[in-house]
Amino acid sequence: TTTPTVMAILLRTLCQGIKVGVEIILMATDGGCIAAGEKVIAITGTGRGSDTAVVAIAATSTKLHELHITSERIYIIGFCSGAASACIFASQNSVGALVLDGCFADVRDMVADQAVLMGIPRFLVNFLTPGLLLMTEIIYDYELVNAQDVIADVACPIFFIYEENDELISLEEMQLLFDLATHPANQFWEVGDAEHSQSYKTHPAEYIERVDGFLSALD
């Protein structure tokens, strides 16, 4: 199983990258031990939860399979849009586990909430969003997929992380995703005194302990 020391080194290294836009982390373990043949890949936020990000996960997963790492030994940690991309990928492919940190349930709601934080009236966002989505579909061949619509198809265990002071995602949204998910080993952690996808920065020791405990219990 993973050890707290290995997990601490792993997460400290990876979470430093979040500051520069890393949204998805794939941890691949061989023989049930991250320390043996450790393989870690960080994927940037390219695509912001779109098809591009899902394709990037798929390509990386395929490469890991070529290295004779089985699907159940691949764990994905997703932050914000990366969490949604990880959810979409896992609904269509087999992986060992997901950690979804600050995952939004609905793309439209996420866009509207971000726009409101930028000072744009919500009614204006709601008016413009259908047209913008149509344009992205035509120009970029973007197909809208919401995490809430596919999470029931995710077969692996999921660890949900919600930050109490999240200004983009409500507790109700994360609770909805948790309720829609079907695996009996799923867990939910509400982190106090933390902002959107920032719980590692505010609670590093507890973050490591909880993620490590969740993944270790799967072995």
UniProtKB/TrEMBL annotation:
SUPFAM superfamilies: alpha/beta-Hydrolases (SSF53474), PK C-terminal domain-like (SSF52935)
InterPro entries documented for this protein: AB_hydrolase_fold, Pyrv_Knase_C_sf
PANTHER family in UniProt: ALPHA/BETA HYDROLASE DOMAIN-CONTAINING PROTEIN, PROTEIN ABHD13
Protein name: Alpha/beta hydrolase
Provenance organism: marine sediment metagenome
